[in-house]
Sequence to fold (337 residues):
Amino acid sequence: MTPIQTGLLAYGMSGRIFHAPFLEAHPAFTLRAVVERSRKQMQQTYPHTISYDSVADLLRDPTIELVVVNTPNGTHFELACEALRAGKHVLIEKPVGTSAADIDALFALSREMNRQVFGYQNRRWDSDFMAVRQVVESGQLGELIEAHFRYDRYKTAIHTKVFKEEPTTPGSGLHFDLGPHLLDQAISLFGPPAEFRKTMGSFRPNSRVTDYFQLHLSYPSGLNVYLTSSLLVADPGPAFVVHGTRGSLRKARTDVQEAQLDQGLTPLDATYGVEPADAVGTLTLVSETGEKTAQPIETLRGNYMGLFEAVHQSIRHGQPYPIREEDLHTQLEILAS
Fold:
């Protein structure tokens, strides 16, 4: 089968870590081209690629089927629309847009052009989250009562990328940076909430954008889900805590894929995605007689390649893509409210 010729719209941190290694390693893709307006760097690692000076030049390449929109947040919607109008499928970094209306317009245009829109939500394939999903879906916790997902960092410095720190720039702030990860994980596991509430804050010195948020999602069953992120957490606790009528689970954020990719490890390496042996979480169950037993959560291998395989299956074989239009609509409805 003919490989999917793919172009990247940028080769910064996202292109270097989250996209190029997988497009190069997966046999169903060919990493053909990139847009580099000034520094021409990608050919140093991928000498067979073409470096275009502009998005327009890349979109005019008739061999490119799939375009990865991995530019600053506020540009995702317009550039994805340009690519769709040029007859390309699009894989769009989070956030896919900055409003629910963006999602509606993108998918409407994709249907008009007979092309596909793929949201890049790689954290569904984190080792830690996959372990949590496995436990939750097993039913061992009983009826779910409460869940807490956190994504914390400690960064007091204002980011050098102005678009991340300028409040008038669409898609700026921590809620548009890490919020899509937490929301996508929660929505994929629990579904869309019946109601939500949002708390935002800005605490770093000289910060002009959100650097703390908590989203409270309420479900008809009575389940309450809390999604929290802060840039001022010096001692992070568990990233995932879920309580049910029959037990609880705790799991730290232990996925190693981003760090490994940043160090140059390829997705084909035997050690890729494998958590440290001591990074297991804990599942505590209560028997009918009230006896508690604690056991380690099975360690799973992180696998961002699963997202690219899903894109391949959708383009070449018409299989449903797991990050659905309605998932993205709900996500942006909450983030942009």
Q: What stands out?
A: Residues 100-113 form the longest helix (14 residues). The chain is about 30% helix and 25% strand. The two ends are 44 Å apart (CA to CA). The chain has two domains: 4-122+306-320, 127-301.
